[in-house]
């Protein structure tokens, strides 16, 4: 009986050890899966940041084009007899795609939160940095949109657009065929003033100065967004490339 009990206890110990080893292996596998997923998340976030970086670059180019157009319009309205077509063309260009603002890619971050995998990210500093990034760039983007709306409102509040050069610019544009028929264009050339009227000149002067200021401020905000993007890129590049 003694031998039997020793044998039974030995069998039990072997089973327990086997279970513990199996649990340890399972835990190790789960840990490895989590670390692999964490690494994938870092790399996906990095890819989206690289897209954000390109988006900011494109928006900066557009902002600089708007600034140049606003400057040309300002120089024209400052003349004793501003040409309506020249002013109108540049004013329109200074407002082009005014409602386009920066929209960060947040697909991966949203997936991390909605899937319940937030605890997969072990580096809490990274999570804090990502959260701060989205908060900051959202604030900058909202400011861009608010400023853009000011410029749009200035156009909407002008009582007589015939005097602003906007229609003159449309008639002269290469897209004129898509806007007006030839008959309408011919009559508009006769009806629309060639020069900006002195009575509306101060209003247009003020409006284009507002547009120029807003465009300059937009570029400054985009540079702030670019700094945020570059900071996050540096952090995530280290994490994505890490093999720890």
From TrEMBL:
Q: Keywords in alphabetical order, please.
A: Coiled coil, Membrane, Transmembrane, Transmembrane helix
Q: Which Pfam families match?
A: DUF6090
Coiled-coil segments on the chain, per record: 46-80
Entries under InterPro entries matching the protein: DUF6090
Which residues span the membrane? 7-25
Q: What is this protein called?
A: Uncharacterized protein
Q: Which organism is it from?
A: Winogradskyella immobilis
